[in-house]
Amino acid sequence: MKSVFYIGMIGVLLGQMVSCSDDFLDVTPKGETLPETIEDYDLLFNYLSLTDLMPSVLQYAEDDSYITSGAEVIGDRENAYFWNHNLDTDPESNPQVWQPLYLGQYYANVVIQEVMKVQEGTEAEKRSLMGQAMTIRAMNYLYLLTAFANAYHPDINPDDLGVPLVTSINVTDKIPARSTLKECFDLMTSDLKQAMEWLPEVHSNRWRVTRYVAAGVLARVYTYTGQYEEANTYATIALESPQIDKILDYNAMEPADFPSEDVNSERLWVDKTNSNYSSSFYSYDLLEYFQDGDSRIRLFTLPDEDTGIVVREEDVRSFGLSYPEMYLIQAEYRARNGEIDAAMEIINTLREFRIPEGTPGRALTATNAEEALEVVLAERRRELVFRGTRWMDMKRLDLEGRMPAVHRYMNNDPSDQLIQTLEPGSPNYTFEIPEKVLSMNPDMEPNHR
Q1: In the CATH hierarchy, which fold is given to the domain comprising 206-403?
Q2: pTM given for the model
Q3: 68 falls in which pLDDT band (50, 70, 90)?
């Protein structure tokens, strides 16, 4: 008897997981697909599985986060925060990270496999849709790998297990084995490079994929895998986008004036996932990175009257990609390559838009490459706080031996009770494959034995 690859697709077959109003999305029987026109395929990209990608629960695993729960509290958020092996509290429910990401892969695969068969439409229109689907599929695999696989560098651990690479749209197909990390990242980078050739330079809105978005995803992938020269190459391409005002002047804004994502010129690609951070605090460690006068604190946080801890205000910045992230990737490459002045120039240009003129310490300096890298990584942490990149950074820096122990303290206070520690090199940097997936696929190799 064939083992069915559990990715939450039963709900698709029954039409229970589809909230889109388009009839062709209501039922998907036994792997058959019903979109028939270019417009049908284009409408697929409005479905939340292809617009809301970031597993926001992973943000609680970051050292940027503090939550008020103690270790005795049982919940999905707490599982991430305390780096428990299993992210899911209820092993019988749909896995909160695995299921929606593989559901997105299903829809991406529908487009990749079927759109070229449509009779109408031009070759360029069909390939553009394929390129969008390939970019989304690559980003989804990046999120899956940062949750359920070890950090990766091609020269260190190419044969470590990744995740199953699913390209079939027949949900009753036999489960593929977990691919190696090399196989996973080779597919992702190949897809993204092909997508760049097919995608348009501009699109109708910021949550649709362009050539520059695919380049930006490649830059993030290569940063995560420690291939910094390649990351710089694709970040530079992403910054060739015709978008003007790629860095906004936060010093000239009030919180109410900050632009929504659909008109925010800093955004390269908008992920519409709700960050759901109303109950989360900046960790004690993160707060130490911000100097007095930093406009990012003024715009995106407010003091909590009960605890005195700075918490996030309603924040309209999204996940996805931003142009500042691309500049930071360029700066990191230059620092690692010994180009100290060039790295500092990028960092200080960004800081001119974040810290008011005349503020002490606005311009930063470095006397050697290691200092320059420390400056860049600190600015990256400040700029990209709660934007879906810190867990990736923690994992890659841990693989390089640059990540210190991360501590969870009662009341966000290092002088109070220590609750939990994530040690350097800990296996808890990798979450376990969901119990429901393992139970339905007994041959799948788990992470933690």
Answers
A1: 1.25.40
A2: 0.92
A3: confident
